[in-house]
Amino acid sequence: TPGVCTCNSGWSGSTCATPICSPTCSNGGTCSAPNTCTCAAGWSGAVCTTPVCSPSCANGATCSAPNTCTCT
């Protein structure tokens, strides 16, 4: 159809400028490129589901939320 864009894979929107992340980014992360999340502070990983603890947890504790260590 004239005037209608068909976006390349990984892109959406009227001008094909909106990246698609599948699965979607979590915990406030944003989709910055196709299947590429930019994570909010305190989160890391492919879809921003891994909490970051700084400094790292010690003595067997695990990082259960941003800057929150949990003893096991």
Produce a short descriptive summary.
Helices cover 0% and strands 31% of the residues. It has 72 residues and is mainly β.
Percentage of helical residues?
Answer: under 10%
How would a textbook summarize the main sheet?
Answer: 2 strands, antiparallel
Q: Kindly name the structural category.
A: mainly beta
Strand order of the largest sheet: 1-2
Q: Measured on Cα atoms, how large is the radius of gyration? A: 18 Å
What is the helix/strand order? Answer: EEEEEEEE
Query: So how many helices?
Result: 0
Task: Give the N-to-C terminal Cα separation.
Answer: 60 Å
Low-confidence stretches: none
Shape: rod-shaped
Overall mean pLDDT stands at: 94
Give a count of the beta strands, DSSP E runs of length 2 or more: 8
Strand-residue fraction?
25-35%
Explained architecture:
By secondary structure, this protein is an all-beta fold. It has no helices and eight strands. The protein has strands at 11-12, 18-19, 30-33, 36-38, 43-44, 50-51, 62-65, 68-70. The protein has a two-stranded antiparallel ribbon with strand order 1-2. The termini are far apart.
Observed structural traits:
single chain, 72 residues, mainly beta, two-stranded antiparallel ribbon, 8 strands, rod-shaped
What is the topological layout?
Elements: E1 11-12, E2 18-19, E3 30-33, E4 36-38, E5 43-44, E6 50-51, E7 62-65, E8 68-70
Antiparallel strand pairs: 1-2, 3-4, 5-6, 7-8
